Amino acid sequence: MTTTDTALAADIDATCRLTGEFVLRSGQVSNEYFDKYLFEADPLLLARVAREVAQLLPADAELLGGLEMGGIPIATAVSQLVGLPAVFVRKKAKEYGTAKLAEGPSYDGRRVVLIEDVITTGGAVRDATSALRSGGAVVETVVCAIDRSPAGENPLADVGLEVRAVLTKAELDAARAAARG
Ligand SMILES: O=P(O)(O)OC[C@H]1O[C@H](OP(=O)(O)OP(=O)(O)O)[C@H](O)[C@@H]1O
Ligand SMILES: O=C(O)c1cc(=O)[nH]c(=O)[nH]1
């Protein structure tokens, strides 16, 4: 367990694990879905997640890159906690106005730590990494609330990204099993 908040896994699991049939972003079909908005909409749970994310930030982070959409509330909460500015990374650049992909201050040449809600295959994070790097950002780490990618593998190793997770699927499963007795 990477979290210092020992009840967090059980509370997140109870709040946002859904069962059914879900098509995921990657096109995979899963019988489980972690609805991050259910914890992000709860001010106390969001604050607890943000505290854990803050502890996982690399010391040399200059900007927090919150990924549209679920990464943005977490990045905002962490930004308020640690005093680092944030950029809000769109899935695709806005087609009018500033036409930006990432909203907020310039990230060219700056060390951006990505903040994500859930990682399954790492596809969304990979896309954001590539886009920000194209704009000159140094992106080496992503901190996510829930990592449900296969245990023991780094789905983003191919793009040189370290994944730091507040909670893994195994930890959520263990919390669920413990709660059921
Ligand atoms: O690791 P992956 O296989 O890419 O899957 C995880 C991504 O899928 C979800 O994005 P979605 O577009 O559903 O999210 P949003 O509600 O945050 O916009 C989730 O928020 C991650 O960004
Ligand atoms: O892979 C996804 O799309 C995904 C999985 C999940 O558990 N939660 C979520 O918001 N997205």
TrEMBL record:
- Partners and quaternary state? Homodimer.
Enzyme Commission identifier(s): 2.4.2.10
The protein's organism comes out as Nocardioides humi
Q: Which key words are in the record?
A: Glycosyltransferase, Magnesium, Pyrimidine biosynthesis, Transferase
Cofactor(s) the record lists: Mg(2+)
Protein purpose: Catalyzes the transfer of a ribosyl phosphate group from 5-phosphoribose 1-diphosphate to orotate, leading to the formation of orotidine monophosphate (OMP).
List residues binding orotate: 120, 148
Where 5-phospho-alpha-D-ribose 1-diphosphate binds, per the record, is at 25, 90-91, 94, 116-124
**Protein's gene:** pyrE
What the entry lists under Pfam families is as follows:
Pribosyltran
Could you identify this protein by its name?
Orotate phosphoribosyltransferase
UniProt domain Phosphoribosyltransferase: residue ranges: 66-148
Gene Ontology MF, one: glycosyltransferase activity
Sequence similarity:
Belongs to the purine/pyrimidine phosphoribosyltransferase family. PyrE subfamily.
Give the metabolic or biological pathway.
Pyrimidine metabolism; UMP biosynthesis via de novo pathway; UMP from orotate: step 1/2
Q: Which reaction does it catalyse?
A: orotidine 5'-phosphate + diphosphate = orotate + 5-phospho-alpha-D-ribose 1-diphosphate
InterPro entries in the record: OPRT, Or_phspho_trans_dom, PRTase-like, PRTase_dom
